[in-house]
Every structure is written in C-alpha cells, then in structure tokens.
Design a protein that fits this description.
heterodimer, A: alpha+beta, B: alpha/beta, 4-stranded antiparallel beta sheet
Chain lengths: 449, 311
C-alpha cells in the first residue's frame, strides 16, 4: 500500500527518496488528462489554491465540475482553445519517490512532443482505451518508446469501467501490445487495467477487478528500478569545462569538469582521451567539493589526471580498454522536430555531448512510417514529425556510441547554423533493437539498408 | 557541508542517487554548460532562497575556482532591509561582482511611473531588460522553478529571449536529452533555469542538507504587519498601512522574498529548518498562492509578464 502523505515523514525520511522521470503518451480521448489529474489529485499534489483557481475559472465558464485540464494547460492559448500545445513538466511526490512527469500532448505534433518527453524518461505510460484496444496511435507510441530506448513501458488499459471490468478484454489488449512492443525490443512491459475516471488501480487498488493481482500505476511508479547495472555500462565522461583556479591556494589545480554520462570511474584507472586517443591515469575525483575514490552516472564531478595533456571542452574520457570508436560518418535515426525541413546536402551543426561540429547531410536513405513501421526509401527531405534514417558527415571526428548502448553518448542534435533552430533529434546506430521487416518498398533498387 | 552522495536505504542498487543528488548533479551540469558556451553570463541574485541555492550550486560547480559569473539584482526600492544586508554580505564573502538595476532610479528619472496599486514587481521588467542590453549579457540565470506556476511549467531550461527579452511560448525549442541548445543571434539572450525541476520542498531540503545560511525573515519572528487582500504585509515606508488599515504584531515568516508591496508573510512558529520543512510538507497552499499578490492579478499574470521580459 502506498503512503502518499508527505507530512507524516521526518526530514530524514524525506531525503531518502529517489527520483523517477517518466512520460505519458496517449491520444486525445484516451483519458490522459484524467489520469494525470488523478495521479496528482490522489497523491495530494494539487494544493488548495490551485484547485480553487480551477474551480473559479470553471464556474465562470458555466461548467459544473472543475475542469482538471485547466491545471495542466498553463498557457493562455491552451486555455482559450482547450488544447495542449506543448510538453509540460509536473512534479509530485510520495513517501518513496519524487516524480518528474513529462506530460506530452497527444495532438498533431505528437511525434516530436513524445520524443521530447521520452528523451529524458526512464518510463513511459502508454494509454489505451479498453473499448478500442491497440490502435494505430498505440503502435506509434510503442514505436517512439522503442526508438528512444525508454527502459520501462507501462500499458495502461483505461476505461475498464466501460467494458464492465472484464478480464478477457484486458488480457487480449495486453497480449497484443506486449507482443508488438517486444518485437520492437522494448525490454520491460507492465500492463495495468485502470479507470482513471473512477480511480481504479491508479493510486488505490480497484474493488472491481479482483482478478488483477498486479500493482496500481502509482505503486509501479514507486517501485520500478531507476538505475541500471552501471558496471555493465561503458563508462563515458564528456569534458564540459576545465577548472583552473590559478590562485595562491590552488596554483596547480587542473580539473576536468563534467557529468558522468554512463558507467563508473575510479581513481587509479587508466583512461583514454578522445578524439586524440592519448592515455593517462585518473589521480583524483572531486565530487562537488569532496574527494572520492569512485563516481558514477549521472554524478557531476571533476576528474584530475596524471599527465598534463591537451584536453578541452568537447573531449571524451573513457576507460583505456573500453573507448568508443571515433568517426566522421554518422548513421542514425532522427526525429525531425523543426517546421523547416531537413534535406540531403544541407549544412548543419551537430551537437553531441559537449561538442558542436559542422556537418553535412549526405543522405536520407529512408523515412519511417510509425503506423506500420514501413520504410519509404529516399524521401529527399524530412519534415516536422518525420522519423528517418540519415547519413551525416562531420567536419571533425566524434567519439560516438550507438544509442542502444548509451542514450547520453549516442544521441545528438542537428542545428540550423543560420538561426540556431534545433532541427532534429538524432540517435546513432540501428533504429530498433530488433529491426522490423520493411513492409512497403516503393522502389527497392534505390535503397540498401 | 554534509556528504555529497547518499545512497537511500532499502534500495537494491548501490548506484541509485537520492533525488537531491540527482537534482544537484543536473543543476551543476547546466551551470557548467553555460560557462562552456556563453561569453557573458550573469546570475539574477535577489537574496531570496532560490537565488541563494543557485549561487551555492554555482560555487560547488566550479570549486576550487571562483564562480565565473557576475550577479545582477533588480532592486525594487521596496526590498526587505535584512535581505539587502544578506545580499551584500554574501557578495563580499565570495568575492563576487554585483550589478544593481534600481527601479527607484527609473522612477526618480521619470522613466517609470508608480502603479496605482503600489506594487513594484511588474516594474522590474524594464530595468532588467535594459541592464541585460547594457551589459550585453548573453545568458541570464534565474531561480524560476516549474512547480511554481502553470506558465513556468511550460518553460524550457534554456529559454531563448529576443532582443526585447520577450518569451514566445509557441516558438520554444524542443529540449531533448541533456543537450541544451544555447545558440542565439546578437542581441538575443538565453534565460537559464538550473533549478527548473526542483520543488519548493526540494529547495528547503537542500538548504538543510547543505547547511546554507538564509536571511532571517524566512524563519518565524514577530513583525508589525497589516492585512491587505488577505495577506499580511510588512508595515513600512513603502506605502502601508493606509488609513483604514491597522497594524498588529504577529508571529510570521516568509515563504518567498520579493517586493514588500506584494509579498505576504504567513503565520508560522517555524524557527528551524526542520520545522520549516515539516510546515511546507503539510501545507495545502502553494508558496505563490500563499504569498504573492502579483500572480493573482489575472489568470495569465505570470505568462503575460514573462512575455514582456520578466523572469
């Protein structure tokens, strides 16, 4: 049973909680706002003055019940039009955990919004209307979660109250979704039958579905593991900033500041600096004012090295025996997030970790249709919300991992050098864990991947 | 300073970070990104708890080197004397450089006019934006948090502002992974919010964990106050109480620190950090709902001010 009331905890207990970042995805009528509202409301995260403000506005518009969507639609235009324009971040907490929810709208711009929300999420909640089952939009959401390599996916089968809380309805949807998501390489799927409106299995267990023995949505959010086995990850440290005080107290201090992107670093370890490839040894790790022997992702630390070698912002420090390949030819899947298109031959900037380099789009071999995962060859350009394969040549070498191995060192942005617009979100390497078979091939002589 | 990393009890994975460690690590990353990519960053520093936490994070991010940023305070002329004293003492202690943009000077020079309701919070926008232009600041750190207000929930960590400092919520860049895009044209700047993802409770817990000193007004004390629009305002030369308003002495503290004309005190007997944290955890009011008159002016008050260049 969850204990959502924070006030019952001591200051020490409050500090012992972990943080989970998650995203919700659902189309317009699946009840996403209701689920978010229910999570916030039942975990006592909506405060009296916020609720009063919503009640007041709802009343002045002639609505009888408070419209909980007003809590989440923060912009004037959103409230006026009754639509959600943009991703919003919300915060709530229980005794066990703090949550950052990327609330992604299910509207027209669904792909880029969900990509934005999913990029930092460790868990995605995909909502399905029990009456409709797995539809095109569900497959799209599953595909985005798979592409972004979100480690945990929750299938929330909503509106169970409208199908008489029938187990077979839930079981059939769960089975179909799990099979589909697993074929895309989604590592962990948890299906939960809920009614966001009635409150079944969201925060409180349902009295209507005794056939279901699993956790409620909130219980699952509270207990899902937030960090992975870091010892199995390739350790990566992008250098952000060189700290050189040059003061009387610290005349010779030279530290490389950054946030550990993946894995574990230890004092005494032999490391390579990329792209130069020089090797040296870690002589000290300063974790924000305290000297430590070991540090891990995502800690922000400062590394001190044995040799005074030329290292600057944009370089990557990795274990000498486990360094990533260095390349100027990037093959990746991108989600195009800008209104202006991305075309073959276009000159762009590529931002990877702390390094921004000039680059050119050499090829766009295919565009992916998320609905059926078919690949359309040589589209020539990508427009807003398109997902496609690209080949990019960079002016300088990058120490780039496959996105499958590291979300942090396998991801990049393409930026318009003229006006600074973020054009595309890039993921290096293969698109899905298990590449799906292409369904449509307009001209199979033209493509080769 | 207490331990930097604490592994929560009962977690199976020894590498799990506590929520405060995660938030701290993220904020430090943001400070260092700005130091690495911008020419002339500045931290908005008011002596309020959020900017105090920001400065503390910046000190940790670049230690043992000094913070590579200057500070900017927009002084409304109605600031709490204890807070100004704290501000000056802190700046001196860390050897920092402080710019002050003064609303009073703008009023005295006839460049701004006092509002009929006497609040000076909205008047800060012009001195702020002119200071940014004058000093050619290209990155401006603010202590805004997304949990404070619904328009702020929509704002990016790196928020591009045009040459008039305006925010256009429809033209925001998607923020992907931890890859912040700070590119901007000459004249434009980026507002940076390192503690976007913190809640009020996180800020207080962090202050306690790190042993950060705060201005006294954050703790319960006896104060001459009077009631206006349902809030306890401090009596003083700034414009209160008026004839029909009467002062009384109450045991109060402040949850936010802003202009005296629109920042209300709350009844409280919390004299220690632990008591404040207990009080916040149990409160059924948001900090802004409890103490800020300027957010109550209209449903979109914050959004409208941000569009004009407010922080």
């Amino acid at each position: 049973m969850t204990t959502p009331i924070l006030s019952a905890l001591s200051a020490e207990q409050l500090s012992a909680t972990t943080l989970l970042r998650f995203a919700t995805a659902g189309s317009v009528d699946d009840g996403k706002s209701t689920l978010v509202g229910r999570l916030l409301h039942d975990s006592k995260s909506i405060l009296t003055d916020q609720l009063e403000a919503v009640e007041q506005v709802s009343l002045s518009r002639g609505q009888e019940a408070p419209d909980l969507a007003l809590l989440t639609d923060g912009l004037r235009a959103e409230r006026e039009q009754g639509i959600t324009i943009d991703v919003a971040y919300r915060y709530f907490a229980t005794a066990r955990r703090r949550f950052i929810l990327a609330d992604t709208p299910g509207h027209v711009q669904y792909t880029r919004n969900m990509v934005t929300g999913a990029s930092t999420a460790e868990l995605a909640v995909v909502l399905v209307d029990a009456r409709n089952g797995v539809v095109e939009q569900t497959r799209r959401h599953a595909a985005v979660a798979a592409l972004l390599r979100v480690p945990h996916v929750v299938l929330a089968v909503n509106k169970m109250d409208l199908v008489e809380y029938a187990e077979p309805v839930f079981a059939a949807i769960a089975e179909e979704f799990t099979a589909y998501a697993a074929s895309l390489g989604v590592p962990e799927i948890t299906a939960i039958p809920i009614s966001a409106l009635a409150g079944d299995n969201v925060v409180e267990p349902s009295a209507h579905m005794d056939w279901y023995g699993g956790p409620t949505v909130l219980e699952h959010l509270e207990t899902v593991p937030v960090s992975h086995d870091l010892t199995a990850c390739h350790a990566r440290f992008p250098v952000q900033y060189v700290i050189r005080p040059q003061t009387a107290e610290h005349p010779d201090y030279r530290g490389y500041a950054g946030q550990i992107a993946a894995g574990v670093f230890r004092v005494g370890e032999s490391v390579s600096v990329l792209p130069s490839g020089r090797t040296t040894t870690i002589t000290g790790i300063d974790a924000l004012g305290e000297s430590v022997d070991i540090a891990w992702a995502p800690q922000s630390v400062t590394l001190r090295l044995a040799d005074d070698i030329d290292i600057s912002r944009g370089d990557l420090i990795a274990p000498a025996d486990d360094a990533p390949p260095v390349t100027q030819d990037v093959e990746a899947t991108v989600c195009h997030v800008a209104d202006q298109p991305l075309s073959v031959g276009q000159r762009v900037l590529l931002k990877h970790t702390t390094r921004t380099v000039k680059a050119i789009v050499k090829d766009i071999p295919s565009r992916l249709t998320l609905d059926d995962l078919s690949q359309h060859p040589a589209p020539g350009q990508l427009v807003a919300n398109d997902i496609g394969r690209v080949v990019v040549r960079t002016a300088e070498p990058l120490a780039l991992d496959a996105y499958a191995d590291s979300r942090r060192t396998g991801s990049f942005l393409l930026i318009d050098p003229a006006d600074g617009t973020t054009l595309s979100a890039g993921m290096a390497g293969a698109a899905f864990a298990t590449a799906p078979e292409p369904v449509v091939a307009d001209d199979d002589a033209e493509w080769d991947f | 300073m207490s331990t930097v990393t604490s592994v929560p009890e009962g977690t199976v994975n020894p590498y799990a970070l506590s929520h405060l460690d995660s938030l701290e690590s993220e904020a430090v990353h943001i400070f260092r990104e700005v130091a690495g990519e911008f020419e002339r960053p500045v931290i908005l520093f008011s002596g309020g708890k959020d900017s105090i936490v920001m400065l503390h994070l910046a000190l940790k991010a670049f230690a043992p080197a000094p913070v590579p940023f200057t500070l900017l305070h927009v002084d409304t002329g109605h600031n709490f004397p204890e807070v100004l004293e704290y501000r000056d003492r802190t700046v001196k202690k860390h050897g920092l450089r402080l710019h002050v943009a003064s609303v009073q000077e703008y009023i005295d020079a006839g460049k701004l006019r006092e509002r009929p309701d006497g609040t000076r919070n909205p008047l800060q926008t012009v001195p702020l934006t002119e200071a940014i232009q004058q000093h050619r600041f290209d990155a401006v750190f603010g202590g805004g948090r997304r949990d404070e207000e619904k328009a702020r929930a929509k704002e990016r960590v790196f928020s591009l502002r045009d040459e008039f400092s305006q925010w256009d919520p429809r033209r925001q860049r998607p923020e992907l992974w931890q890859l912040y895009n700070g590119r901007h044209a000459p004249g434009e700047h980026v507002r940076v919010f390192p503690i976007s993802n913190w809640t009020e409770l996180d800020v207080w817990q962090y202050i306690e964990r790190e042993g950060i000193e705060l201005p006294e007004i954050y703790f319960a004390h006896e104060r001459e106050v009077f009631s206006r629009n349902g809030m306890w305002l401090t009596a003083g030369g700034w414009g209160g109480p008026k004839e029909h308003e009467t002062t009384e002495t109450r045991l109060v503290r402040y949850r936010t620190v802003g202009d005296m004309s629109c920042t209300g005190a709350v009844d409280s007997d919390a004299t220690t950090l632990e008591a404040v944290i207990t009080e916040i955890a149990a409160s059924r009011l948001t900090e802004r709902g409890a103490t800020r008159a300027d957010d109550k002016m209209s449903e979109a008050a914050m959004e409208d001010r941000k569009r004009e260049g407010y922080f």
